[in-house]
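Hi W., the adenosine-5'-diphosphate complex you wanted:
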Amino acid sequence: MKSITELQDLNGKKVLLRVDFDVPIVDGKIQESFRIKKQKETIDYLLKHGARIVMMAHIKALDSFASIVPELQTILGHSTQLVLTIEEAASSSADFVLLDNIRKHPEEEKNDTAFAQRLAAGFDIYVNNAFAVSHRDHASVSAIAKILPAYAGLLIQQEVNELQKAVEAPAEGKIIIMGGAKASTKVPVIKNFLSKAEAILIGGVIANDILLAQGKDVGASLVDSDAKELLQDVDLTSDKLIIPEDFVVEDTKYLDIGPQATEKFCQIISTAKFIVWNGPMGMFEEERFAAATHRIAQAISDSGALSVIGGGDTIAAVNKFGLLDKYSFVSTGGGSMLAFLAGEKLPGLQALGYYS
Ligand code: ADP
Ligand code: MG
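Structure:
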């Protein structure tokens, strides 16, 4: 994988930069700017070396970046020109330009080559710094890298290095904590780490899914309809798999793991050397179901182990507890982090030559 640090001369070069600004918006304001801040190092590096940047990014919470450009500028510390069309982006004389929501173009998610060619026109190089979308086969992540000379930004390199460490760290002392909801992204990670970790602690909806797959009664608890089939090729009898035995229950719904399970998890965490955590233990958005997630977050921070955490909701929870700076590495990836940890090939990394 070629890095921007290998580029000898960036002075005056026109760089097409894929960034990740897909932030949550509440009352029109950016609720959590972690992902934007994580782009700053690469942007500063490119600007310092004299490059002119056009950024491509998507946002799901808004149609357009227009209303948050003032906030973006403040966070990044650079005056930013928002342009609405690909042609304006290529012809702009500004040093720092943002092309509006790339997913407005239906060709983006189709990984359309002709669209990628339109994007590439007038640029010298392409840089991908959007780790969180690198599991997507999209034009601004994948097709574009076949048209322009393609380089990894500093964040992509950092993400890959840190997650690689999580995969390669010795199984002894390595604890995986898996919660949250989406079975299709979580089960492959559980499967991959059964042979690569000392224990896998399970909470969230995925705990309900496993109990159900084991033929247990989970009342009216939320379950994922895809889980049963996905769990068929996971060894659910493994003693490495730690499933809670008590829950916080309301109207027969398991909404958080219970105090005994929390205690047991914290005890295991305190002995760990390396911890990987994705997914809240319960419906943490409601205070009365946030206890286990909060205690686990604190226990990881107290453990002294190396820790890698990720997932949009996991980060939102940890941020709420004021613990976001207490971990060795916080990934900007949700789905992409899980795909990487599951041992899948990410199209965006493949396009940068990572697997060759
Ligand atoms: P992440 O974004 O960190 O990867 P997910 O998106 O997979 O996490 O899951 C987070 C969501 O799962 C949260 O909205 C949370 O409320 C929900 N959740 C976790 N446990 C439960 C539960 N027992 N019942 C209902 N919802 C839950
Ligand atoms: Mg989520």
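The mean pLDDT is 97.

W.
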